[in-house]
TrEMBL record:
It comes from Actinacidiphila paucisporea. One of its GO terms (biological process) is lactate metabolic process. Residues 71-285 form the LUD domain. GO terms for molecular function: 4 iron, 4 sulfur cluster binding; metal ion binding. Residues 315-384 form the 4Fe-4S ferredoxin-type domain. InterPro entries: 4Fe4S_Fe-S-bd, 4Fe4S_Fe_S_CS, FTHF_cligase-like_sf, Helical_ferredxn, LUD_dom, LutB/LldF, LutB_C, NagB/RpiA_transferase-like. This is L-lactate dehydrogenase complex protein LldF. Keywords: 4Fe-4S, Electron transport, Iron, Iron-sulfur, Metal-binding, Repeat, Transport. Residues 393-485 form the Lactate utilization protein B C-terminal domain. Signal peptide: none annotated. Pfam families: Fer4_8, LUD_dom, LutB_C.
Amino acid sequence: MSRTHLGLPTFPQAARLSTRDEQLRANLRHATSTIRTKRATATSELSDWPQLRAAGAAIKDHTLHHLDHYLEQLETAVTTAGGTVHWAIDADDANRIITDLIHATGESEVVKVKSMATQETGLNEALTQAGITAYETDLAELIVQLDNDRPSHILVPAIHKNRTQIRDIFHTRMGAWGRPAPDDLTDTPADLAEAARLHLREKFLRTKVAISGANFMIAETGTMVVLESEGNGRMCLTLPDTLITLVGIEKTIPTWRDLEVFLQTLPRSSTAERMNPYTTTWTGTTLGDGPQTFHLVLLDNGRTDTLADTTGRQALRCIRCSACLNVCPVYERAGGHAYGTPYPGPIGAILTPQLHGTTTPLNASLPYASTLCGACYDVCPVAINIPEVLVHLRERITQGGPTTTNGTKTTIKPAKRHTTERTTMRTAAWTLNHPAAWTATQRLTTRTRALHPRRLPGKTARAWTATRDLPPVPARTFRDWWQHRDADAKDTPQ
Ligand code: SF4
């Protein structure tokens, strides 16, 4: 399980507040529209983009269908190369394993490469409780950590902050964590980056343990692959004595050759770069070069249950490029915090309810955080049909029924708040299945059209129609018009 999002407000409650924050909306609008435009240019340069997209989806699907085989192959290869593999069934398990490994080194500080998996398990909070300080080294993660905030975007965790806000955070908070920011710090990107670089450099040189995630794990050789743009990852992955890597089991790919596809699609989809700036790969340990102790912690935390869902399992193809966030009209207005989980945006709306179940009000609200416009599906480099999974999850929530989360079976009650929708759909289904009833309903509707209200009754329906006009009902049904069209034509003056 994950403790990171229990007790938080539902998506509509949180979005109601965040959409009132004009500064947040301005920051998000500017950032997402910039990335969106650049990504569209970067992907349009490749004439075989559709083929790469299909290949990425096929590689991921093949691996997921044979995940047991590739995970065992990966474990053997990592172990042969001098690493140690640990299996974590859930977030608590992963945090306990990592805490024990750090304690065994005698250290009380770690440097971290940006990792969604560690956010998912709430690792930083678990380490703090165990007396271990974790230093985030990705620039945006550093900003979020210094401000005691939460990330709001997969790729750009501080997307909700502008440069002036970041300068103020560096001024007021950096000193409490190490080397302070200079007094004359400006809000130019170069100055801010230099302040962060100097602040982090002493941590890279001092800290003996590093924690990372990985974008991919190559089963055939047991190789970990990390893509990043700042060079902080390279520091963390090479300087410390001990490296602990926490990765979701779905990040496995069979061969180096498969990596070729993702090294083309991931940078263009995420940062709109033709080639990733820092791609670090390592296989176990090498005597006298890099960390001499390597631990790989493989995280399930709901992934096996997700794999069992034939519609929902496509979410496990995700390579965390964040393209779907940047095109989502709901994300752009509500921001990442409204999702209440480490995975915001469209992918979060389908991944979180599958990994952690839909038994909490927050998780049950996430599949509804979408207009189903389909823009997320269009841009996804591994062709995840997010709208299809959203509708599938909505059906699951509305209908209720058995579900399994981290091996624990529960039964979800049908959602009470969708009673009106269910009743409407049942009535519509019955009417459409009975032609006489359908014809009578149509005639009654056209004959009473002058009496129809312009706004629907009921709180939700009224709010919906407050900003939308109900379409006018025509004087005749299509069938009436069709039956009488010849007579109408004769009556029409020539
Ligand atoms: S769902 Fe697709 S577009 Fe969204 S982050 Fe994952 S890979 Fe990228």
